[in-house]
Amino acid sequence: MxxxxxxxxxxxxNSKYFYxxxxxxxxxxxxxxxxxxxxxxxxxxxxLDKKPDILFSLDNYKKIFTTLSYKKAILNSLKITxxxxxxxxxxAFLGARAAHTTRGKFRSVFLTVLNMTSNFAGVPLAFAYMxxxxxxxxxxxxxxxxxxxxxxxxxxxxxxxxxxxYIYFQIPLSTLLLIPAFNGIRKEWGEANMLLGGxxxxxWRKVGVPVLLPSIFSTISVLFANALCAYAxxxxxxxxxxxxxxxxxxxxxxxxxxxxxxxxAALSVVMMLIMCIVILINNFITKKVTKWEGVSK
Length: 297
Prior knowledge:
Elements: H1 2-45, H2 59-66, H3 68-101, H4 105-118, H5 123-133, H6 138-146, H7 149-152, H8 159-182, H9 187-195, H10 200-228, H11 232-238, H12 245-253, H13 261-296
Helix pairs in contact: 1-13, 2-3, 3-8, 3-10, 4-8, 5-11, 8-10, 9-10, 10-13, 12-13
């Protein structure tokens, strides 16, 4: 018996080493393409484009927070990100609930459409919106014929049009992330609620939404990062005519006149810090909500 136990322990140890060896290629890729570039980016952000000999300077960060265009870029990015995230999570909640409560072919078709639309973003999405709602778009032409005022007066090439596109690509992603969370809501809970005389709205307010809150906040973090870093859609629609943080970062590295890689690195660090702050706040709220739920139970 003792010999068998030793053999099992040796086998478990060997399998553990095997899995560690299998992780080496993955760790090498992470080190070369994520960790090292991140370290270099942070180091470069403290250098100056005009004075590369200076090893440490905060001038890039001072310029970001004192220059109107960069401050406006940060505010515009935060505004569009917050609006698209809020609309995305609300609509996704309704869509995920519909997918959870239905069965059969409708659910399969719904999930298929979600998977397709979740990958439809960037330049193709901007081009599709131009065809539909551009100055000579299909819907604009139909609106002119039938006198539909709110479509006739809609200008796609503004922050409103850009926000609409952001909301579009946020919805399928957030819905796909929320659908598995609804599996945690048991059917018995709804039946118990009905037997006790509770309404459907009361069930979701008292049971359903509190159970889903950790997943909802996690999805919000993903949506925030997804919208804040989105570049291709905004650039394809408005190019440099609307100030956004990702567009300004790109302009620093591929400028028409001259590049400013060190300033671009500082802008990238600011964007990463914003994401980290939002994720930390989100995690803090999630822990508080979870703790409060545990105490109330």
